[in-house]
Design goal:
Length: 238
């Protein structure tokens, strides 16, 4: 009997304001170790799809499951921790990244998710430092950070805080230079479980800490897609 997929999307349909489909009857599964790259022209619904999977957007029809259990059967905060959406640019938040990290750690749903997780938390500040973010930046107001600094810090929090089984990445390195982008890519791939037949540069490495089990990744870079993806899905065809 085949194993239950980590994530299942079945017959998902989203309508535009004029009731025409943005995409329709979209189905796919995601297994541990996979990185599904979303492709498609601007406006084809890539970001909308990630938000639907994260239960942040309504959809007209379809089902999303984690470990065979439908999203509506989970508590919403628990689902959004386990299936975590990371936006391209973090919304302008009050205070500092360190304040934000403290708030996230204090949430009861986050504590519950961590209790049931395997492995130790990957220190978000240490992870961001690997990506070129000096620790003093965590004490600066969000509004004073550059786009690349804010992007790396928000991603480090999402990855390092633990609890997420599927990370939904909306162009996570769009504000970074090539060197920084590749550092982020290598870190994320190193956290995934091994995938049989994985030919990527970071395939078959020992999983580090309590990282995600699979990724869905939007990128407009064909080179990045080739580096990180195990397969791709073109929304322009749906």
């Amino acid at each position: 009997m085949p194993a239950t997929p980590l994530l299942e999307v079945e017959d998902l349909t989203v309508l535009r304001d004029n009731s025409s489909p943005l995409f329709s009857n979209l189905s796919f599964t995601l297994s541990p170790g996979e990185v599904l790259v979303l492709r498609g022209v601007s406006g084809s619904g890539k970001s909308t799809l990630l938000k639907c999977i994260a239960d942040l957007n309504l959809y007209s029809n379809g089902t999303v499951r984690l470990h065979g259990k439908e999203s509506k059967e989970w508590d919403i905060p628990e689902w959004r921790i386990k299936v975590a959406y990371v936006p391209q640019r973090p919304s302008l938040l009050p205070g500092t990244p360190l304040d934000f990290l403290s708030i996230i750690r204090s949430l009861s749903a986050r504590k519950k998710a961590q209790q049931g997780s395997e492995g130790a938390e990957v220190d978000p500040m240490g992870l961001a430092q690997d990506w070129g973010i000096d620790k003093p930046l965590w004490r600066r107001d969000w509004g004073t950070l550059s786009g690349g600094e804010a992007q790396r810090i928000a991603l480090a929090v999402a990855v390092g805080i633990g609890g997420a089984e599927v990370l939904l990445l909306d162009e996570p390195t769009s504000a970074l230079d090539a060197e920084s982008s590749e550092k982020v890519e290598k870190s994320l791939l190193s956290m995934l479980p091994s995938l049989e037949g994985d030919s990527r540069q970071n395939g078959h490495v020992q999983r580090k800490g309590n990282g995600p089990k699979a990724l869905i990744w939007i990128t407009h870079s064909a080179e990045q897609a080739d580096r990180v993806g195990t397969r791709s899905l073109d929304l322009s065809q749906h």
